[in-house]
Amino acid sequence: MKHNQIKEPIRKVWIWIGLVLLVLAIVPWYFPSSAVEPIILGFPLWAFISTVFSIALCGYLSWLCVSQWNIVEDEEEQMKGGE
User: Fold this and answer.
1) pLDDT of 61
2) What is the rounded distance in angstroms from the CA atom of residue 47 to the CA atom of residue 19?
3) What is the crossing angle of helices 45-67 and 13-26, to 10°?
4) What are 27-71's pLDDT values in tens digits?
5) What is the structure's pLDDT at 40?
6) Coil, helix or strand for 73?
7) 3 state SS of 70
8) Helix segments in 1-83, DSSP class H
9) Which DSSP state fits 10?
10) To 5 degrees, how large is the angle CA 53–CA 46–CA 63?
């Protein structure tokens, strides 16, 4: 990546689509109301799914911050020179 290349992830549609899908997946609203709740590793299925997708959301947001974000603010601070 070039040092002067500025990336603003807010303008990328695929980032928002991934974020919305993960947030929707965290809340298991898509289970039928008559479903029998199996236990996975001591957790009800809905809690296990919420935990897995919460961890996935944290990983996705961390990856976005590390690899997709290069904002103008850093360069503006360098141009000010310590004001």
Assistant:
1) 92
2) 20
3) 160
4) 888 877 766 678 888 888 888 889 999 999 999 999 988 887 766
5) 83
6) helix
7) strand
8) 13-26, 45-67, 72-80
9) G
10) 5
